[in-house]
Amino acid sequence: MKHLFVGRTVTYSGLFVLLCVVVALAGDNKKWIAPESAAHVKNPVAASAENLASGKALFLKNCKSCHGVKGKGDGPKAANLEVQCGDFTSDAFQRESDGAIYWKTTEGRDPMPTFKNKLSDTDRWTIINYIRTLAGAH
Length: 138
What we know:
Elements: H1 2-29, H2 36-39, H3 49-62, H4 64-67, H5 91-95, H6 98-107, H7 121-132
Helix pairs in contact: 3-7, 6-7
């Protein structure tokens, strides 16, 4: 009887450790980190009054439903998502490189769609230029 108790204890302990590992790995998967190669890509579109206006229009059309008008992650669809929408005004987001943001916008990750075929490269870079102006919108 004592061996049965020890055996079950070891089994349950092993399952608990396995569960902890799975939970820890699942938590790491929530971090969305661009590949190092993407992080070093520079934005080829210089910010100008014209392309910031264009970037704002593209942002309002393609991003505001989830990220909100001011980019705080509080758009009308945000409450219905299982993950929190990114807050473009946060210091953490603003520290990300243009290349990392471009990669994320291009590739997407559920529930965020890919914009690879929906927006041109220039449009995606232009949106990034506009998103940079949201930093002061705290």
